[in-house]
Amino acid sequence: MSTEAVAHEAAAHAPNASEYIIHHLTFLDSHKQASLVDMSVLHLDTLFYSLVLGVLAVLLLARAASKATSGVPGRFQAAVEILVEMVSDQTKGIVHSAESRQFVAPAALTVFVWIFFMNAMDLLPLDLLPKIWGGIYQATGGDPHHAYMRVVPTADLNATLGMSLGVLLMCLYYNVKIKGFGGWMHELFTAPFGAHPLLYPINFAMQLIEFVAKTVSHGMRLFGNMYAGELIFMLIALMGAAWAGTMGSGMLWVGGVIAGTIWAIFHILIITLQAFIFMMLTLVYIGQAHESH
Q1: Which residues, 6+ apart, have CB-to-CB distance to 209 below 8 Å?
Q2: I need a surface site. Which of 126, 160, 172, 243 has the fewest CB within 10 A?
Q3: 50 among known catalytic residues
Q4: Catalytic-residue membership of 100
């Protein structure tokens, strides 16, 4: 077969723009793997990268703690100290219980670093890890077109809502710990409209709506921003892909490189800001659990 024929055949099998985006938005689900147990609701790629990046965040902070010195700090220690002081100051201003801060401040720091790492996966070349996974999948006898892989865990609503549910559990814990179970039950039925028995159902419904709204908006905010950023990277990548096709031109590739560089630089601010916002809302919700209505 001639080189022209090979190129023509490759172009014929190349995905169009819609197929390219759909492929990149498809998760690696466990039901696509040979398994005795059907756990198709699990997104294996989200779980894998979340756990790996979570361990990396813990190891990074542990290394900073083990290498800390009272002398002149190095750049790494200075950067971590600035981050720790920032989180500590924010926690002191929101959570007024010194005992609670001993757990809440490290948890907030871990949340910030963990989410930052997960968000930062968006800065990797879009096709890098999926192409590697496709090669591995093909080497094991699979069809590379079915080798799905998403590498940004925070662009998965399951992951962000899972984290917000974790924050909800912490809020419920501190509501009971600070106010006592009886005190919290009294608050559920008497706030915000008062202690009249006729208002108990309304108060309770309002409290439930507040907890649900906080949890859903907490997870949806992070997911929405990271999902949108991921889509923009895909659209920019299509500019470069169009250059390789018969309808494209070299200017599309140049435009894709310029647009991708600009968006990546701007996206550094977004991934940092979204990690900070999630951390701050975590502190605010836990702080509210310490307060009585």
Answers
A1: none
A2: 172
A3: no
A4: no
Question: Considering 16, 40, 217, 249, which one is annotated as catalytic?
Answer: 217
Q: How does pLDDT run across 82-135, given as a tens digit for each residue?
A: 999 999 999 999 999 999 999 999 999 999 999 999 999 999 988 889 888 888
* pLDDT reading at 246 higher than 90: no
Give the C-alpha separation, 261 to 252, whole Å.
14
> Using CA atoms, how far apart are residues 46 and 25, in angstroms rounded to an integer?
12
Query: Six-digit token pair at 115?
Result: 């989410």
- Dig out the tokens for 10 from the structure: 């490759």
225 catalytic? Reply is yes
DSSP letters, 174-204, are: HHHHHHHHHHHHHHHHHTTT-S-GGGHHHHH
| Residue of 119, 164, 203, 225 with catalytic role | 225
Nearest to 16 by CA among 257, 251, 242: 242
Going from N- to C-terminal start, the domains of the chain cover 3-289
- Element spanning 209, H or E: helix 200-244
Measured distance CA(170)–CA(209) in Å, rounded: 18
Taking the C-alpha atoms of residue 182 and residue 75, their distance in angstroms, rounded to an integer, is: 50
Q: Are 108 and 90 in contact (CB under 8 A)?
A: yes
| 14/252 Cα distance (integer angstroms) | 18
- Residue 8: pLDDT band (50, 70, 90) is very low
Give the total residue count for the chain.
293
